[in-house]
Amino acid sequence: MSNQELVVLGQSRENGACCPGLVTAPLGEDQAAELAKLFKALGDPVRLRLLSMIASRAGGEVCVCDLTPAFDLSQPTISHHLKLLRQAGLIDCERRGTWVYYWALPATLDRLAAFLKTSQTAEATA
Fold first, then answer.
1. Which residues have CB under 8 Å from 19's CB, separation 6+?
2. How far is the CA of 66 from the CAs of 12, 102, 117, in angstroms?
3. Is the Cβ–Cβ distance between 9 and 31 less than 8 Å?
4. What are the tens digits of pLDDT across the range 7-33?
5. Which residues have CB under 8 Å from 72's CB, separation 6+?
6. Which residue from 82, 95, 89, 91 is spatially nearest to 34, judged by alpha carbons?
7. pTM of the model
8. 39: CB partners within 8 A, 6+ apart
């Protein structure tokens, strides 16, 4: 067995990177639980499509009235999925009159992207 110290993500004292990648070091318990909430929210095809529709919208936000017709689901079911995405911190919303407008939270998406980035991905984008 090696004498190398096992560095846990989020507990490293080096370089102060906020979001080390998946292949950098093992996750600590708290970080694993936090990231699992995000991945659980994205683990449903409807929620993944909703996030994609919201994040890719020109202007950065979309009315719920534009989201609902894209699915063969009831409006309450769509609202439930949007609520789970909000609770996970992936999107936020604001009521304007009778409609609710949604937008993606870039910091959370960037955090997921940074976590999933491998050394090959980092080299390819550099």
1. 110, 111, 114, 115
2. 44, 10, 32
3. yes
4. 434 444 344 345 556 667 788 888 889
5. none
6. 89
7. 0.75
8. none
